[in-house]
Amino acid sequence: MDLDKILEAQRTYFESGATLPIAARKRALTTFRNEIVKRQAEICQALKSDLGKSAQESYMTEIGLVLSEITFLKKHLSAWARPKRVKTPLSQYRAKSMTLSCPRGNVLILSPWNYPFLLTFSPAMDALAAGNTVLLKPSASAPATSAIIASICATCLPQKWIHVVTGGRAVNQDLWNRNFDMIFFTGGKSVGKLVYKSAAERLMPVVLELGGKSPCIVDRTADLKLAARRIVFGKFLNAGQTCVAPDYILVEKTVREKLLEELKREIVRQFGDRPLENPDYGKIINQKHFD
Q: Which residue in 25, 110, 147, 169 has a CA-CA distance of 20 to 30 Å to 153?
């Protein structure tokens, strides 16, 4: 892989104006939608291999959301791209003023392993809809999903428009130390700081979508059965590997024991008496993250 040649080809393609026509962007989105629908079973198998996800969970939390994103983009793209008239300042009297939404150029997207299909393709579809060229770097911790992502992209569009780069931490560092017109990073705070620092030195715009701590607050007025159902669903979805999964519960002492009973009952209701033997319950991505 000659990364320099790929990036140069993407910059040249963007500068040619080939990504700008709205019709071309919509065709690209449609091509991806059709390919994702056609290969849904393969995507589910890849997510099962990497994260132990069931087909239902894979569609609900990843595939279906990407398809919805594409539908939303196609519906609104023409309106978003249309010039919008605004008031002209007095100093520019007799001129006509407008705002126009323009693509950034060559965009780098670094995605994580916990929702590897959703958090790669959702920002990628946004970037394509906006008229950019895209370099995707999915997580090395989800190799099966990364492989299907690369295959889909190669099938749908030429690499001068969108291309997938695979590899580990060294590849990530090489990428975020290069010049892009924008970086979109989803992941942890420690790596996010490195990406932000590198981009700041080049005055590159960055979007950071980072994880954090998410408390649940339960007081004595709460419907404890409903609270337990929602907490268990949110915490155990994707085996807890979700940015906004509940990390801890702040509960009023008077209802603490009752809430604990309801939580235990909900776990059994949702996953059975032996959750670890439930084939639809996912797994921690790897030993390092389990530890």
A: 169
